[in-house]
Design brief:
This protein has helices at residues 4-10, 15-43, 45-64, 69-98, 103-131, 136-139, 141-155, 172-195, 201-223, 239-270, 274-302, 305-322, 332-358, 365-392, 397-418. The longest helix has 32 residues, at 239-270. Helix 2 (15-43) packs antiparallel against helix 14. It has 443 residues and is an all-alpha fold. It has one domain (4-159, 170-429): MFS general substrate transporter like domains (Growth Hormone, Chain: A). It is found in: Cell membrane. Pfam families: MFS_1. Its main location: membrane.
């Protein structure tokens, strides 16, 4: 969060205390995602979308009016609950509206937002702090959210009457295990980054809790007979689904590691401010925003394997180029490498997401979206934690940059190795009565 120092000064609090405003938001998002999986079919997509927007707007307004660090943390957490409803829901609604034939095209368009969001956020935050009070970082979301609410109320199709919705029983025990389990894992990684060590008790305690809770959920999901699990772990028996979420998880980890390492390099090696560093790393997001719509649309016609493999190769070579950068290297080269790594990641992300949704029957789209977003949260936390540890244990910033991008190179090499497992060009969607399995994943 670009405003941590500003907030600490304005609210008369320590940096670690104010940091919980971001951590609380992240944990709330992660904890809410599994609930959204169940609620979208119980209450309807339109109702849930409007409810999520209302909660997010209320949290944004309250955060902008916060009077101390404690109130800011509480209101940011409320904002996170709203985001936890909206984040997976947008993919669920888009995937259901598009259908298997246009999954790649729609996921590619959605990828524009996913690519530019992490890049434009720090730039916008730096611009706001340069001319306005910190409160406007949150208050500006209110009018934007209200416009989105009015448009959604007008455009989204009406849900069936609540009484006619299928009576899906909520797996309360599964929710009590899965939501805090993933949140604990994210917390462990966040604490690793904050304390600069994976052996700190602040990281080990939530890590142990997360492992226990998630293990309990898997056992519960496999043994449940009466209540359908929030996420059916048998989904991972399907080769295409497992390959898809693995590629997206590894790609997300590599992406967040890149987006965290680059601005630190520009700030520490070249002395740039937050806004300038954000602008210099923008080509990484721009590359993804350009590549994802094109690659997604093309994957609907030729399949995902070739595009994903080509994209992983380009991204891997770009990451390798970062390991050759020296202190006196012209800044034009890392900017160019950032653009090409974004292009490469976009070329394997959109086709993979499209193939993932083509491998899922309609009733399991919500579960697939939840898995994607939870892995995205873990990837963000793990990428930041690993890069933080690498930089803190490196002799200088250039050595740290090289080590961070060797990690990115290895991750993308693993993505490349997994691309042959994606569904081939001819793919028949699974039936609506069973999870996607290897029988429908092409050759």
């Amino acid at each position: 969060m670009v405003a941590t120092t500003t907030l600490a000064s304005a609210l008369d609090a320590s940096l670690s205390t104010v940091g919980w405003a971001s951590t609380g938001f992240l944990l709330a998002v992660t904890a809410t995602i599994p609930f959204t999986t169940w609620a979208v079919d119980r209450y309807g997509g339109r109702r849930l979308w409007l409810a999520g927007l209302a909660v997010f707007i209320a949290g944004s307004l309250a955060a902008g009016l916060a009077w101390n660090a404690g109130s800011l943390i509480a209101f940011r957490t409320l904002q996170g609950f709203g985001a936890g409803l909206l984040d997976p829901l947008v993919l669920i609604l888009l995937a259901r509206a598009a259908g298997p034939a246009r999954a790649g095209r729609v996921m590619g368009l959605m990828g524009v937002v996913l690519s530019l969001g992490p890049v434009l956020g720090p730039i916008a935050g730096g611009a706001v702090l340069g001319s306005l009070s910190w409160r406007w970082m949150f208050l500006l979301s209110v009018p934007i959210g209200l416009i989105a609410y009015l448009l959604a109320a007008r455009v989204l199709p009406t849900d069936p009457p609540a009484g006619r919705q299928p009576a899906v029983r909520l797996d309360v025990l599964g929710l009590a295990l899965l939501a805090p389990g993933f949140s604990a894992m994210v917390l462990a990684l966040s604490q690793t980054a904050e304390h600069g060590a994976s052996t700190a008790w602040q990281a080990l305690l939530p890590l142990a809790a997360g492992i226990v809770l998630l293990t309990g959920y898997v056992l519960r999901a496999l043994g449940s007979r009466r209540t359908p699990p929030l996420i059916d772990v048998r989904l991972f028996a399907g080769r295409g689904f497992t390959a898809g979420v693995t590629i997206m998880g590894l790609g997300g980890l590599a992406n967040f590691a890149t987006l965290f390492a680059l601005p630190l390099y520009y700030q520490q090696a070249h002395g740039h401010g937050v806004l300038t560093a954000g602008l210099l790393m923008a080509p990484a997001g721009l590359g993804g925003a350009v590549a994802m719509p094109l690659a997604g649309r093309l994957s609907d016609r030729i399949g995902a394997r070739g595009l994903a493999a080509g994209g992983a190769l380009v991204a891997g070579l770009s990451a390798l180029a970062f390991t050759r950068i020296a202190a006196d290297t012209s800044q034009a080269w890392p900017v160019l490498a950032a653009l090409t790594i974004g292009l490469g990641m976009g070329c394997f992300s959109a086709p993979t997401m499209g193939s993932l949704y083509r491998s899922l029957p309609g009733p399991l789209v919500a579960q697939g979206s939840s898995v994607l977003y939870m892995l995205n949260q873990l990837g963000a936390a793990l990428g930041i934690a690993l890069v933080t540890l690498i930089l803190q244990t490196s002799a200088d910033v250039i050595t740290g940059l090289h080590s961070a991008f060797w990690l990115v190179t290895v991750l993308i090499a693993a993505v490349l190795a997994a691309t042959p497992l994606l569904p081939g060009r001819t793919h028949t969607p699974a039936t609506h009565s069973e999870p996607a399995t290897t029988r429908a994943e092409g050759s």
